[in-house]
Every structure is written in structure tokens, then in C-alpha cells.
Sequence to fold (1178 residues):
Amino acid sequence: MFKSVKRILDWVGPYKKRLYLGCVCSFFSVWCAAGPVMLAAWTLGLIIDNAQGGVPLPPSLPWVCLCGIVGLILLRFFFSYWKNRLQESIGTERAAEQRIDIGDTLKRVSLGYFAKNNIGDILSALTTELSTLELQSMKMVDAVVNGYVQVVVIILCVGMFCPPAALAALIGVLLSAFALQGISRQSAHTAPVAHKAQEDLSGAAIEYIHGLSVVKSFGQEGVSVERFCSACRDNKEIRIINEFGFVPWNCLHLFFLRTASVGLVMIAAWQALAGALDLPFLLMAALFSFTIFGSVESINDAAHILSVTDSVLGRLAELDETSFIDQGGRDVPLDCWDVSFDHVSFSYGKREVIHDTSFFIPQNTTTAIVGPSGSGKSTLCSLLTRFYDVNAGVVTVGSHDVREFTCDSLLRNISMVFQNVYLFRDTVRNNICFGLPGATEEEIIAAAKAARCHEFIMALPDGYDTVVGEGGGTLSGGEKQRISIARAMLKDAPIIILDEATASVDPENEHEIQQAISALVHGKTIITIAHRLATIEQADQILVMDNGRIVQQGTHQELLQQTGVYQKFVQIRQQAEGWKLA
Amino acid sequence: MKKKEGWIQTLLSFALPCRGKMTVSVLFAIISVAGGFVPYLGVYQIIRMFIDKNITTAGLLQWCGVCLSGYAVQVAFYAFSTMLAHISAYTILDGLRRKVADRLMYASLGTVMSKPIGTLKSTIVDRIEDIEPPLAHMIPELSSNVLLPVIVAAALFTLDWRMGLASLATVPVALIPMAVGMKTYNSKYAGYMAANANVNSIIVEYVEGIEVVKAFNQATSSYEKFAGSVRSFRDFTMEWFKATWASMNLCLSILPTTLLAVLPVGILLYRSGDMAPAKLALCLMLALGIVGPLVKATTFINVCKSMEYAVQDTRELLDMEELPEAKHPAQLHGSNIILKDVSFSYTGKTQEGVLHHIDLEMLSGTFTALVGPSGCGKSTVARLIARFWDVTEGAVSIGGVDVRDIPLKQLANQVSFVTQDNFLFECSLKENIRLGKPAATDEEVFAAARAAQCEEFISRLERGWDTPAGDAGKQLSGGERQRIAIARAILKDSPIVILDEATAFTDLENEDKIQQSILALSKGKTLLVIAHRLSTIQNADQIVVLQKGEIVDRGVQKELLSRCPLYQKLWQAHVGSKHWAVGAEAIKIKEEQAYV
Fold:
């Protein structure tokens, strides 16, 4: 638990000074809170003296008390205000800083980074996880650090008059800290179990909902209900068992504190009995015994949350360890867009997927890459766009090694049409304009017309000013695709990479999409991962991939003459394209 | 206020199945509170003995023992209470989840499918989870944390009503800064939530769209937008913090200082001879004891809002309408499908209709294709036959019986519905196929898989047929999953086969194999195809052309090509796309069209 607090202290970094100053304020504010109790004990002592020995009470006593307490309240307000001012917003400031840092990292990494790091993980780190830290970190520091500051202050108070009683209280606090450690350990142990039970339940729920249509249409309700119910049952049992694991520690924690309370009173009374302690101090001890541990008592809740912040900090630290692929890159202006691969090998981890591959693509020609799935077609494109760096050999664009470029300056030369049809939750105009900020209205409409989207855009409620739903929600797949083509058209990059497989997301509008592409690729260097015979037949050059190698290379007519992968490929495609039912 | 009662009532109704345990839990919580009250009396006795000067070691030990046992009772019963509360809470969650699942099973498939899976899942898992804290903590803890201060205050009032009043004096004083702070709370809170939602959506866009951002060299400007919104959210939050610091801290400094009035009033009462010193000591202790639990109780107020939403979301699913179902198996005569004057709208209002007065006959063993521009309602026709929804007007019948009079299970046996959504369950591939006919032998399963062209890729997997679908899921392509789903339908061997989107073939790499598997599935069946590629349905016995929810024309391909302008247009577009090529000139497309 204390380690987790330490971790938060490390996380706040430059704000540490403010945090510690806040703790100092907290220290004083606790003294102010303890003040009225001491005042009450002192007054009570006067009253008892008065009752027993007739020592007269000062007449102004009620007013002295009232003013004293009001003064203490104001002081307490002052210190707690400053504590909050110094501490409370640190979480927010630090979280904002870290969000911006991560955003900056994302800006600089190559796209290959996102293949290795799940986008969902990055997103949850930026939103939920940093929110947890933002909202909880200072509360936890406050609960634990200031909680202990408070108890130490009161123990000091007691200790000034009756050291043995203070010792009893201290022992109680130490024993309870031991029980709290038990809670943390238990939490560290059960949190993953509970997390897994929750994941299982989510999985079962998704399977159940997703599978509803299947089980219903096959009349097999039993199968999926059973699995879902057993996940629910397991979840229930695991959670109850987990909860039971905490109960003894929680009881111990509370019981140690309670025993210490009684011990405090007993030892003070003992001392008073022996004449070593004046009555007012006994009264003070008695009054304190009910409030002294209040702040430590609720630390048991903090122990749970701290195990959460701990794992969040762990995941954030992992995200931080990113290397930037484009370190040392520069802006390279190009006047020629020939592409060449020279003895290129590449492996994902240990598995080599591209073996010693060489080819040359002259600018303004069309190249089709064909081959069975998994043969390395997309990897070639990823190497050209430098999502990854090659292990051996050289990839060049315009006779410059792609490693000379920064990611940005390389991508300026390349349009990837079907890589991602993500649209921003912004107007249609701004989405298209994204390809060329500052484009004129005429340019935007011309691009939209060429990409065959002008017509359906005009049919939208606000035309070009219609806001697209998140991720392009309100448009059909084909419409989104055509907008993304319009965007690529505005960008007007000299090299275009297309993946034809994704071109068929919307078979109803296939025709329109294809016309849009035709308009895009005019007079450019085009590299297509091709499946359609018509496309392949038109290509200036065909690269046939199999198992990470180029096995055949040439034009359609040349390759048809050779026996090999290509002939078989063409045969299958011919059958598939002429297919009809019944 | 009325709404609030609503959700608390609903919450209590959720708790009904564990009424006994919950009651005992609250009872134990009260015993625990009572135990916590004992030490006040014990310490009071010790102080009284000191004041009366009749203190003895035995007396001291005796009362310390009483205090300790009081605390022991408090802690032990608190533990029992929370344990019981947790057992009941998790039992109730379990019950609720199953109940919701049950509802989903019996609601119409159309209604269920119209909700995003993510939303349904989050209600079943996360929202219902949100009900746990109120059940497990609020009912026992809130009741005891409210009860203890009430008992203590009551005790103070019985000791001396003036002291009772004095102990509550800080409450109205503290309320003043509180009221000032809360005046703008609601609007500030709403603003904060809006700012939070806004920054989150910008973060989501920045991260999810980052590939596009980079591909278009907009990293810097998008990053600026992102960083700007993060900063402005931070500033907003800080503003809000700043606005609350003064009032909140003043309130929290005043509220717990109950001695503020208790001490001076106590002195005055002593001076007027109305209060003995020992009694005064007790009053002071009690006044201090009021604070802790009350502060704890206020922390529950903050979570009320999210609980309210959780309870209401769950309620909504539980109240979902069930699809009425026939009890007795119907006697079907063949598998003719007849739609008679069918109209349908999702809302039940005819003016918002998706289909209008559709009359359609599909005879046993024939092949019907539905074509039309997107959004014309062709998928809806298919879904009404499988009874995803009930028609708004008219009737759908199979084998001469209205589908509403056929039990869902029997209907399911008649119709195989194949879509792009090829869901595999978390069991082996073999069992996934066997789902089509649970009594099937291994041989039958293998035969179906062979017919669906699955054998080749299944043999490639390390554990073959026994590969769990989850593991295989990562290795299988969309087309391979589709073939498993088709194998399942082949095994089921129902007389009617509906192909919706199944012929769209988004997996170009495996197109040929999927085609063969669909041929195997549809052989000799009453076949209804929602056509996306017209060339696949050239040989249909009847092609039905739909537009805006109405049938425009029907007939065989040749007839339609000669007389139906809409069909001609669709056909030309299709043929155009088939012969289209990257890099080809537009003239080329024109040529192709001419040659048709």
C-alpha cells in the first residue's frame, strides 16, 4: 500500500513540492481540528475543579471557548483551503500533461507502432485510466498521507501529557497498518481473479447476445444459455469468495484501532489513578479516544483503490517505453517517384515474411501485386510506407532510402486509399478538405464529383455541412469509402497504394467506387494489391508473390505463357467472377 | 422527486429475492451500531467514577472490558452484516443478469438486433454491476451510518434538550457556505460532464483516426486540436475546483466542529446548575461521536446518480416486450412461402412504413431473388419470413400456416438464414458445425464440412477439428468463418434457405470456395436470395424488383431486361463494375456496357 502511494508520488514528478507543502498545511489543519477537543478537556477540568474545590470559574469562559473555537475553525479553514489549493488539482494537471505527452508520442511514431500496440489500449490509457489517476490519485494521497499525519498529530498531543497512552495508540496504528497491508496483498491477489471473472462474463454476454440469432435460428437455445448462466454463477461465487477474503483483514484493522482506543483510555485512567496524570488530561484522552483513529479507519477503502492506481501506473509506464522509428529522419524533396526494393528481407519478430526481394517500379506505371493470402503482399506496401523498417536490403523512393525521410515527409508522397476509411466527426466538407487544408470550395466539389460522392452529399440534410456521425456512422460503407477517395484525390500524391479486397465492402455501390478510383489513379505511380482480372490485365507489371518471395514477374500476357502460380490464380479468378447460383 | 422514488422502489424490488438475508443484514448493522454506542457509556462511567472519587482498579478494568466488548460486537456484527449484504448483492446481480438474458431470448430478434451489442453487453455486465454498491453497501452501511448519529442525537436530547440543539448548531451554519457553493453546482456539474464528453470524443478521434491523420500529413494540426482540448478541459476542471475550494472547505471546517455550541452552552448550563460535570463530559463525547458517521453517510449521496441510471437501464431491458408464441406445433403442407398484402414499419405507424402491400409467392423448390437499390426493403422481406419481427399488416405464411401460429422452434427448423454475420461459439469447430443438428454423428459433421469447403483449412490448423473457435478465430479469415457457418446450415438441412448478404463476398481471396459451399447448401431448396451481384442470380425462377418498399416488377431475367427500366439500370451498373479495371480509361467501361 505504501509502495503504491510512493508510486503516485513519483508520478506527480515536478508537482512534488506542492504536494509536500500541502501535507504541511494538512498537518496544521489537523492541529486546528484537535484544538477544540483540547479546549473542551481543559474547560471540563476547570469545571470539575470548580465543582470539587470551589475554584471559581472565570465568568468570560463561555465566550472565551466560543471565540477560541471560532478562531480555530477559521484557522482550520485557512489551512485546509491551502491544502486543497496546493494538492487537489495536481492529479488534473499531471493527467493533462501526460495526455499531451502521449499524444505527442503518437504523433511521432510510425504507423507500425499501432500494429504492435492495440489502439484500444492506447485509448483506454488516455481516457479511462488517466481519468482514474486524475480523480483518485490525490484523494488517495490525502487519505493515506494526511490520514497518518492526522493520527500522528493527535498521538503527539496525547504523548505530551501521557507517553504510555500515546504508545498504546501508536501500537494500535502500527498493528492496523499491518492489517491494511493484508488488505493490499489480498487485493493484489484477488484483483486479477475478479478482473478475469469480469472479462469472462463480458465474453459470455457478448457471445450470448451475438449468438442469439444463431441459436434461435437453429432452435438450440440451451447451448448458449448454459454458458452464460455458468459465467454469471462463477462471477457471483468468485466475487463473494474475494469479498470474504477481505473480511478478516478488515475486522482486524478495525479491531486493532478499537482496542487501541480502549487501551488509550485505560492507560490514561491508570496513570490518573496512580496520580501521575491530571484529570483534564485524562478527559482529553477520553475525548480523543473516539475521534483519534477516524482518519486511519477509512484507509481500508483506499487500499482497494490504490491497487487499481498501481496497475494503471504500471500500464502507463509500459506505454512510455516507445522508440521512435523516424529519429534522424529529414525532409527530403523529391522530383522523381521511382520505387525500388533491393534485396529486401523483413521479419515480424522471429518469423521472416519477406525473403530477399528485389523489384523496380518506374514512375507513372501501374503495378499489380497478386498472390495467395499470407504471401506478403500487404507487408511489401507496409515497408514502402515505412510502417516498419527492413531487416536487410534497401527500399528507395526517388532513389532516396526511405529511412532518410521522416515519416511525415515520406507519406507526403503517398496516398493509401483503402487503408482506413475512418471519417472524423466533422462536416463532410472538412473531412474531404483534410486531404488538402486550405482547398477552395471549387476544389472540394470537384474532388467530390470525381469520387462520385457529390450526388449523395447533396441529398444529405445539410449538404456539405452535414456532420458525419462518429467514425462515419450515418453513411453507408460505400459512401464513406467514396468520401475517403475524395480526400485522397485532394491530397494528390504522386504514389498511390490500393488494396482491392477492401473495395468490395459495399457490393451495391461497387460500380461507383470503381469509377471513383479510376479518376484518382490517372497519371500516377500505382501499386495495387489486386484480385480482379480486369485490373491485373491492365497492369504494366505484375508481381506474383508466394511465401514471401516474388516467384513470377511480368505482364499478363507474358505470365500466362509460363506454367506456375499465376496461371492457377487466373483460372480460379475466372471461375469465381463468372459464378452464378443454380 | 417522484422519479427518485421510482428508482429506489425498483432497486428494492430487485432486492426481493434476498429479502430475508437483507433484513438480517440490516438488523446486524443496527446491532453493530448499538455495539458502537456502548463505549460512550463505558467511558462515561469511568469519568464519573473519577469525578465522584470512587474509582477503583477493578471498576476501571470492568468498564474497559465493557467498552472493549461493545467494540467487539460492533466490529463482528459489521462483518456479518457486510458478508450477508455481499452474498445477497451478488446473488441478486446473478439473478438480474439471467433475467435480462431470458428477456432477450424471448423478445423478437429484430428488436434485440436493433440495439448495438456493445450497449446490451454493457447493460448486462457493467450497468448491473453498478447496482452492487447500493445493494451491498448502501442498504446496511447507510442505514447504520444514519442511524448512529440519530441515536446519539436522541441520547443528547434526552440528557438535555438544550445540549441536543447545541450539538446540531453547526449544521445550519455550515449550510450557508454549502448553499453558496451548491448554487451553481448543477450547472457547473453539467458543464463539467459536457467538457469531459467533449475531450473524450476528441481523444477518441485523435487516436482512432491517427492512421488517417498521418497518411494525410495532418499530425501537427490534429495534435494541436487534441492538446488544445485536453488543456481546455484541464482549465475547466481547475476553474471548477477553484470555485468549490472556499465554500467546501469552510463547510467542512464548520460542520464537524460540533463543540462550537456544545461547549459554551455546556458551561452555561453547568453554571446555572442544570448539568453535573460528569454529564457534561458525556455530552461532549456524544457530540464528537456524531460527526464521523454523518460525514460517511454524505459520501453515498455522490453515487446516487449513477445508481439511478443503472437501475433504470436494467429496468428498461427487463420490460422488453416478448414475442407472442404459438404453443402447439403446426401442421405444415410443403414449404411454399406466401406474403399476402404485407406492410411493415419498425414503429408500427403505417406512414413510416418500410414495406407497403407486398404480395409474393415462393413455391417449394424454386429460386427467388430480391433485387433493388440499397434501402428498398429487400432484407426486411427476408427477415419477416424468419420472423425477426411481426408484420404490421397482412400475413406471412409457410406451408399454408401463418408464421405467427408456428412455434419459433419449428419455424427455425424450416428456415436457414445465412448472413455475413458468421458468429462462432466458444467451442471446438466441430461442435460449432454440429450446432446445426445436435444429434449428428461425426461422419455427418465431416460430410457437411467437406461440402462447405472447410476441410482444407481445418486440416491446416494444429488441433484440426478440435481447435476452439476462439483460438481459431484469430487464424481464420472472414471467408473461412463464413464457410463454417454455411457447413452448419448444410448440416441442418432445412427446406427453406435464405441468403442475405451471403453472396456479397467481401473476402475476395476466398471467393471461389465460398461460392462452392453456397451451391452445396442451396441445392434442391426453396431458395430466397437477397442479391447484391446480379450475375449470381441470372438463373432465378423469379426475380422480384423492389423500390421504396414496393414491388415494381417480377419475372425471369430475360423479361426484366426487356421491360423493366430499373432492372436494366441495375444490370448495367453491375456489368460495368465487373469489367472495370484500375488504370483503365472510362471509354473502356462504355464499351462493356454496349456489348451487353
Q: What stands out?
A: Chain B has three domains: 2-169+258-318, 182-253, 337-571. Residues 182-253 of chain B form one domain. The first strand of chain B starts at residue 337 and ends at 344. Chain B touches chain A through 163 residues (CB under 8 Å).
